[in-house]
Amino acid sequence: MEIPTAGSDFASIESEPVPTHDVLVIGAGLAGQRAALAAAEQGVSVGILSKVHPVRSHSNAAQGGINAALDPGDSWESHAYDTVKGSDYLGDQDAISIMCEEAPEEILHLEHLGVTFHRNEEGKLGTRAFGGASAARTYYVADITGQAIMHVLYEQLMKHSEQVARYEEWFCTALALDEQGECCGVVTRNVADGSMQLFGAKAVILACGGNGQVWKPTTNALICTGDGIAMAYRAGAKLMDMEMIQYHPTTLAGKGFLITEGARGEGAHLLNAQGERFMERYAPNKMELASRDVVSRAEQTEIDEGRGFPDGTVALDITVVPRKRVHEALREIVLVGRDFAGVDITREPIHIKPGNHYTMGGIKTDADGRTDVAGLYAAGETACVSVHGGNRLGANSLLDTLIFGRRSGADAAARAKRIDGARPSAAVLDAEEEKVAAIAAREKGSGRRVSEIKLELGETMDRHIAVFREEAGIAEALETVRRLKQEAASAYVDDKGSVFNQDMLAAIELGYMLDNAECTCVAALQRRESRGAQYRTDFPERNDAEWLKHIDLQQGDDGPEISYSEVTITQWEPEERKY
Amino acid sequence: MATYTLKVRRYQPESGEGPYWEEFGVELDPSLSVLDGLLQAKDRDDGSLSVRCSCRAAICGSCGMKVNGQSGLGCKTQIGEAHAQANRRTKSSSATPGRGSEGGSISDSPALAEAEEVAPILVEPMGNMPVIKDLITDMESTHWEKIRRVTPWLLPHGEAPEREYVVEPESMIDITQSMACIQCGACVSSCLSMEADPDFIGPAALAKAYRFVGDPRDAETVERLHDLGEDPHGIYDCTHCFSCIDACPKGVAPMDQIMRLRRKAGEEGIDDPNSGHNHELAFVKIIEKKGTLDEALLQQESYAPGVKGKLKPTKGAIEGLGKSLPTALRAIRSGKARSLAKLIPGIHPKLPGGAQDEVKAIYRHAEEHQEEFNIYIRGEEDVEPEPDQTEAEEIAAEEGTP
Fold first, then answer.
1. Residues 6 or more apart from A512 whose CB is under 8 A from it?
2. Would you call A323 and B392 a contact, using CB atoms and an 8 Å cutoff?
């Protein structure tokens, strides 16, 4: 590849050197931090850039644990089979095998770094049960597993600050491509002072998390606005499985806060308003620990058929779990119940309902995190390898972030060593600066408020792209999203300043969310069958003959263009799914 | 739904003006949070109102702030409760509210009844930190730099084992309490020692340090204790004021972790400039023996414990005792110590009759029922010990699940 010399393209930035790293990671949750550390191990220069301080990332919210077949009596094949079955056979079996085979080593690596995993009586790593799994293989730190792992990885980033440069509170607005269409950097805004900065990199890894904020309510944090998915889509990368959005069975009504699946793993029951343990009728073998799509549908059916409580919920009864165990293993949930619902979960059941939780789809990658755009990688919830297919198993998300974060980091470092790299063009920086200036220039009252559009988007998506879907509803959602896209083009911001202008960032994030929403609606409309999280009341059966395939989306002139790709099947042929 | 007034301490760095107060009227359910109220004001009225926030569920640690003068998380403070607290404050006095606040001038409300309707909830940026914009503070220099000061990563020796490190299960639960820290800075904001000594390593960083000192996998426990004990701004700089325990939204109880560090440092024989560990032991010993405090003996025992300490006093002991003389004389002059005789060690009487035996019984009880500080082990304060466990097991057995 040719290295462009400082020609006319670079004239405007000739005097200002472009900060450059071999590998630049966007996002600093578990996938991003793991990727950065793995790349640094290869001896390349690494930068990690995040719109919030790394420890604020949403990986914190993963409570229950991380799956691995580490016990000698367990096997990675069993873990892989559970994952394949959980995915409703839409997961790619080669990638799932890699994830499950490498899981035990990753857990031990984390333990050696200092994660304070729960121990059994012998002082060895101990497990808890989780949904959809045929063995208790979930390793955990009380119910703060994600937080505990993420803070330990951040300790490692601090330890290796000479190898990994941290850009904390930097917001990414676009990817930079070279003349060959390869990714060679990013455009960012330094949140602290509002300056726009171009970065050069031989490889860029997107690890920006999911898009839960497209729905309201959601268990996801306010920062989960699908930034990485939208940036990759705009740069021409393919997205995959975008219709697969997980509704978690146990979220607090109204606020959408998460109650860990670990509660059911510890033995908690689901009850309808008549006090019936209704899972008996839906999943007689696994009961409350069937896979999440199954449990969410069961709850929604109870609620829709009038057996829920008047506030549109059913009850989670944790009082059946010994109190000592609750305090040791579910303390966070005790606090959530007390502080956010006014309920002492050790004494009374808490009202819950299915709520938006996880983006199974995302940027299409291979098992080394490579996207369709050379030099661009993706890992974690931003990416779709696909290991989760139609439905993710509990405690597989942390594993996904770590395994594919590490693999992306290693492969990106190898690429960086291999190529010379191109310098990003200043034109992309100029374009982004103009975009930001245009948003700031919109007069108050010239359009709607950003917050209004976001609210309408969230409520629309939760109404139509939820546990149950059907053609008319999805079409209505798509129409609304397209109208909102037009309205967003004239939405104004109050804050015209440079320092911590969160108003401006919200306007840019709204654009990301609308792209995510449009893709999800298009894919949900297209898939005329029921599989995993996509349950179409107008097509209630799974249809392997026509739909055992991924829906890929690529940006076209009039929105997403649809194509299909094969599901990789190695040793587990699709069969009927029973729990 | 109810209406509330949020009175926010604002600062817009690019305006060229100093900080000011602005009131926002919001309408929301009392069970929602102060952060929800701020976000409503931001969404509806003024998008420039700036506050770091993300999870809304007290996990990410972004929204540290002061509400009615109390440091904590905006998302974890219910707006209805904050409103009630603001009213109590207005009722009880017309004085300015929380430390460092100057915006509580609501004493001109015509009547208490009316004050109940209008008392605003005061919202300010965290203390002990420079303010960048509105509720956003600079945590880098006041928090993260101090975290990095305690070598915040595991330092095991030798090759890692092939499998996991085998450790006592309790040891992991023990340090999980400090692992539960979300680095929100509320404890730093509330820390009185840090207000007096900005170089104090501080509650958050020291709680983080305990996470390694208490970790059996870490091989540099002693080095860490020397480092933190010998730093003049280290573990002995804490004044035991409990502010951080009140402020912490996650029950980390940073002060408890600092006290554990001190105890371990004492066990390692690390010199405590205030003789705090000896002081503590002296208290325990004297009360056990006499029932009430023999102040003359307390000073001696604190600086020169036991017979050995008195026969061969260290330089530090002589200095320390010398330095405490003016304080003792002042106490006598002001009548706090009743007589000169009080200064003579050994003449302090024991409790009369069988009272001293009762004191000893209390000691025995305490030793037999050592209370664990760690909430991961003992649960929240008001939890009764296990009355329902058998009951729960019976229910579980009936329903055929473990």
1. A211, A225, A226, A227, A229, A230, A231
2. yes
Provide the 10 A C-beta neighbour count for residue B377.
15
For chain A, the first-to-last Cα distance in angstroms comes to 53
Three-state DSSP at A3 gives coil
Distance from the B38 Cα atom to the nearest Cα atom in chain A, whole angstroms: 13
State the sign of the Cα–Cα–Cα–Cα dihedral A305, A308, A311, A312: negative
Nearest by CB: A55 against B48, B183, B215: B183
- The helix (H) or strand (E) run that includes residue A565 is strand A559-566
- The size of the A-B interface in CB pairs under 8 A is 209
3-state secondary structure of A486: helix
What single letter denotes the amino acid at residue A272?
N
B167–chain A nearest CA distance, Å: 5
Rounded (10°) CA dihedral A277, A309, A327, B245: 170
User: Dihedral, CA atoms, B298, B301, B306, B311, nearest 10 degrees?
Assistant: -120
Contact indicator for A37, A160 with CB cutoff of 8 Å: yes
Of residues B61, B153, B399, nearest to A55 (C-beta): B61
Digit-by-digit pLDDT tens for chain A (579 residues) are: 333 333 333 334 444 678 999 999 999 999 999 999 999 999 999 999 999 999 999 999 998 899 999 999 999 999 999 999 999 999 999 999 999 999 999 999 999 999 999 999 999 999 988 888 889 999 999 889 999 999 999 999 999 999 999 999 999 999 999 999 999 999 999 999 999 999 999 999 999 999 999 999 999 999 999 999 999 999 999 999 999 999 999 999 878 889 989 899 999 999 999 999 999 999 999 999 999 999 999 999 999 999 999 999 999 999 999 998 898 888 888 988 988 888 999 999 999 999 999 999 999 999 999 999 999 999 999 999 999 999 999 999 999 999 999 999 999 999 999 999 888 999 999 999 999 999 999 998 889 999 999 999 999 999 999 999 999 999 999 999 999 999 999 999 999 999 999 999 999 999 999 999 999 999 999 999 999 999 999 999 999 999 999 999 999 999 999 999 999 999 999 999 989
Strands A127-128 and A138-139: antiparallel
Of A55, A320, A339, Cβ closest to residue B395: A320
Cis amide prior to A386 (ω within 30 degrees): yes
Closest-CA residue of A relative to B53 is: A222
- What Å distances lie between residue A427 and A304, A424, A498, CA to CA? 54, 9, 22
pTM: 0.89
Q: How far is CA B44 from CA A240, A420, B16, in A?
A: 36, 50, 25
Instruction: Give me the catalytic one of A34, A292, A407, A577.
Output: A292
**Joined tokens for residue A211:** 């898009």
* B138 burial via Cβ count (<10 Å: 0-12, 13-18, 19+): middle
Say whether A424 sits in a helix, a strand or coil: coil
Clarify whether A292 is annotated catalytic: yes
In a 3-state reduction of DSSP, which class is residue A75?
A: coil
A120–B169 CB contact, under 8 Å: yes
Give which of A122, A384, A356, A126 is closest to A240, Cα–Cα. A384
